[in-house]
Design a protein that fits this description.
heterodimer, A: about 425 residues, mainly alpha, MetI-like fold, 4 domains, 17 helices, about 70% helix, disordered N terminus, B: about 350 residues, 13 helices, 2 strands, disordered C terminus
């Protein structure tokens, strides 16, 4: 009978196990056959780590990077007549991919090799995008460096500086002021109109509203130069006004308007409908619902969409080029005389052969970029919060408001109906709330 | 049981109390009429927002209508030859957008060809590969790239890229010069000291610069679509033993196909309309040319930016006609793009 009990120590194969078991069934009373447990120390049963970065990964990556660098240097310096930085980078990258694949294939199977190589390719696409951005930003900063550190760049215009003057004379203050005026005026047009139109699209779900939405969506595709051309031919050629900051801001407003409407429309649609319904159920007319519930709920999102529109409007060159003209002197009157903006200043200054003018052009581009960066950061900070979610201060203010409302409504209730119990309970509630 | 029965019997007789029937002619019976008329405040409010909606419709519609009206004079004068003529001499009555349009499309195609692999790879890297802390940074960087004004890219292209890309242009021309796209007339690849200026100010350089603007737009759309891949399918693929690339190939890419096509086309629409970077880089020419690497090209928007001031009457009308064609083209491309995006399984609208 001892043969019928199997222990882990015995090492017969599974096939022979079954044979014996069958024999046993015929010969003796049936017994339980325990399956053979695998050896816990067998290498093939070790758990494969699928998370994190192992030392081997790092070694393989580093090794193939070094090997690719050396091979490419050898190719470019000794073996062939290849040259150029761009070619060096591309050849080095290809050599790296091949080396990496070969190294990985020493330990892994085919799907894993493909996976690793493709992952490296995806990562390099992300790296290329980052490098491109970094190269644009650093290059612009570097070329505008000297002009950026001359304080007169921000305080004076170009009206009194001659072509041979250095960077210590003249600046781009007129372009900064012009940008602020033109963008501000465009904002004064687009914010009320754009938000009202977005409210219209959300409150009136009619066929006309759908038509408006379709047209606005189509207009986001409008090449900005056409907005400039339109204002140029109507405002300046047909109506006979001169080129001015106002004409420029009209053109910029046409570019900004569809962007603001589209983004606000999306944000307003995200306002939960139960909030609207609750407000309607409390007897509020629709305009009060919009003013006190919908717009405050979507405030951060609306601010974000306006800022995104501004960021786009500030950087527009082509519409301003056609409508606001060009000037080298400070002009703070948007209704009279030419006005210039930062992108336009950058565009026209770099076409000059003088190095000081080119440096000033790059300085305007840097100031413009910093302006956009600030707007963009503000938009992200505000827009990082989803619709209806309040900051700490907003939340406490809202809680105070509703406690106040509750007290008021309870007082009114106590005056009209003389139910002592209710007021007691309400007082309790108010205490809890506070 | 008996106890219960007796109790019931002992209890006073129970009756149903019917609510008092209110006669229909009594004043309490009539249902409260819900006032269908809105209050004064609401009426003013709706008038106001409807008026702003109409105003926006009029302004936006006016742009399209005005383009058509202004373009009419030139279109009538030129007739169908407007689409086939290469020269741009409106005062002599010989003008057409054949050369300009080919230049526009050439620049846009170069831009998309450069931007598509980078934006696809970067969006997949952001959604699938990058660790969480890196992901939010990369998203912010790509968004920032989209926000950089086009004139900055133009300056970078003119002063930095133009000088550095000549090597690539020369290499492409040397090895692939037999393809018409990479042919350069006047270039001599065998002579290392030949003039490099034949490679500058070309549609290729302009296209690479415009690609910098197309890339973030396409990347944002693709990222949004890839981030909506259903987690069940994603994890199902992993549970079946798939590698990451296997998951991307079988789940993410088919799911995001609409977003990839739509995002690319949105970028193409932007590339067609880009003005200032192209004006800075190309040297304008009115020759029908498919040679992307060759100096001299043109685009509709740069034509308008260069010529708007020195023309009058028929010349301006001709510019409007060119603008109208460009507008129609971008419109078609953008509507197709949003159709692709909305028809894809994710069904999310883009916000580009």
């Amino acid at each position: 009978m001892s043969t019928a009990t199997w222990t882990n120590d015995e090492t017969e194969s599974l096939g022979s196990l079954f044979d014996e078991a069958e024999v046993l069934i015929v010969e003796a009373a049936p017994t339980t056959v325990l399956p053979k447990r695998p050896d816990p120390f067998m290498a093939s049963q070790q758990r494969r780590s699928i998370r994190g970065v192992s030392r081997q990964d790092v070694m393989t990556l580093g090794g193939s990077a070094v090997s690719a660098l050396c091979t490419t240097m050898l190719l470019f310096g000794r073996l062939t007549s290849l040259s150029g930085e761009l070619g060096f980078a591309v050849v080095g990258w290809l050599v790296f991919l091949v080396t990496y694949g070969v190294l990985v294939s020493l330990t892994e199977d085919r799907p894993a090799v493909v996976d690793k190589v493709v992952t490296a390719m995806l990562a390099s696409a992300g790296l290329v995008a980052l490098l491109a951005l970094a190269s644009v930003v650093i290059f612009t900063f570097a070329r505008g460096w000297h002009a950026l550190f001359a304080p007169n760049t921000y305080t004076s215009d170009l009206s009194s500086s001659g072509p041979l003057d250095g960077l210590d004379k003249g600046g781009i203050a007129h372009a900064i002021v012009g940008t602020l005026i033109i963008t501000g005026m465009a904002l004064a047009i687009t914010v009320p109109l754009g938000v009202a139109c977005a409210v219209y699209l959300n409150e009136r779900r009619t066929r006309v509203a759908n038509l408006v939405r379709t047209v606005v969506t189509a207009m986001t595709a409008l090449p900005s130069i056409l907005a400039g051309l339109l204002i140029f031919s109507t405002w300046i050629l047909i109506l006979g006004f001169e080129r001015s900051g106002l004409a420029g801001s009209l053109a910029v407003a046409i570019v900004m308007l569809p962007i603001i409407i589209r983004a606000s429309d999306v944000v307003l649609r995200l306002v939960p409908s139960n909030m609207r319904e609750a407000s309607a159920a409390l007897g509020a007319p629709q305009w009060r619902t919009v003013w006190h519930v919908v717009l405050p709920t979507a405030r951060s999102g609306l601010t974000t969409s306006v800022i995104l529109g501004v960021a786009r409007g500030v950087g527009e060159t082509a519409p301003v080029l056609l409508t606001a003209g060009f000037t080298a002197s400070m002009n703070v009157n948007p209704f009279k005389g030419s006005m210039i903006t930062l992108p336009l200043a950058a565009f026209s200054l770099v076409k000059s052969p003088l190095p000081s003018q080119i440096a000033r052009g790059f300085a305007s581009a840097v100031v413009l970029m910093v302006l956009v960066l600030i707007l963009f950061t503000v938009a992200r900070v505000l827009g990082g919060r989803p619709v209806g979610q309040l900051s700490k201060r907003q939340a406490s203010r809202a809680a105070a408001h509703s406690a106040d409302d509750l007290r008021r409504s309870m007082e009114r209730h106590a005056q009209t109906t003389d139910v002592a119990q209710t007021t007691d309970r309400s007082r309790h509630k108010i205490e809890v709330l506070e | 049981m008996t106890m219960l029965d007796t109790e019931v019997l002992d209890a006073p007789e129970m009756t149903t109390t019917l609510p008092a029937v209110v006669r229909s002619d009594s004043p309490a019976a009539s249902a409260r009429t819900v006032d269908a008329q809105r209050g004064l405040g609401d009426r003013v409010f709706f008038r106001g927002v409807s008026a702003s909606g109409m105003l926006v419709l009029i302004i936006m519609g006016a742009v399209g209508v005005f383009l058509a009206i202004e373009a009419k004079q030139a279109l009538v004068k030129a007739g169908p030859s407007f689409l086939t003529t290469a020269q741009w001499e409106p005062d002599r009555g010989r003008f057409g957008i054949a050369a300009v349009m080919i230049g526009t499309v050439l620049i846009a195609v170069v831009a998309v060809a450069v931007a598509l692999p980078i934006s696809l790879g970067a969006s997949l890297f952001i959604t699938e590969v990058a660790p969480t802390w890196l992901r939010s940074w990369l998203i912010a960087m790509v968004d920032l790239m989209a926000a950089v004004p086009s004139v900055v890219y133009g300056l970078w292209g003119l002063f930095f890229l133009q000088g550095n890309i000549i090597g690539l242009s020369r290499w492409l021309n040397t090895w692939f010069g037999w393809i018409p796209l990479f042919e350069v007339t006047g270039a001599d690849p065998t002579n290392p000291l030949s003039n490099a200026s034949v490679y500058t100010a070309s549609a290729f350089v302009a296209g690479v610069v415009v690609a910098m603007m197309v890339m973030p737009i396409a990347c944002v759309v693709m990222r949004q679509v890839f981030s909506q891949v259903p987690p069940g399918e994603r994890e199902g693929a992993y549970a079946l033993g798939s590698t990451r690339w296997g998951m991307i190939r079988v789940v993410a890419l088919p799911f995001g196909r609409g977003g990839i096509i739509g995002g690319t086309m949105l970028g193409l629409g932007r590339a067609l309309g880009e003005t200032i970077a192209v004006v800075l880089i190309i040297s304008p020419s009115f020759k029908i040319s498919f040679h992307a690497l060759e100096a001299g090209s043109n685009s509709v928007s740069s034509l308008i930016a260069i010529r708007y001031n020195e023309t009058s009457g028929i010349g301006l009308s001709a510019l409007f006609a060119a603008g109208l064609v460009l507008f129609a083209l971008t419109l078609v491309i953008n509507f197709t793009a949003s159709w692709f995006i909305s028809r894809s399984r994710s069904g999310e609208g883009s916000e580009a």
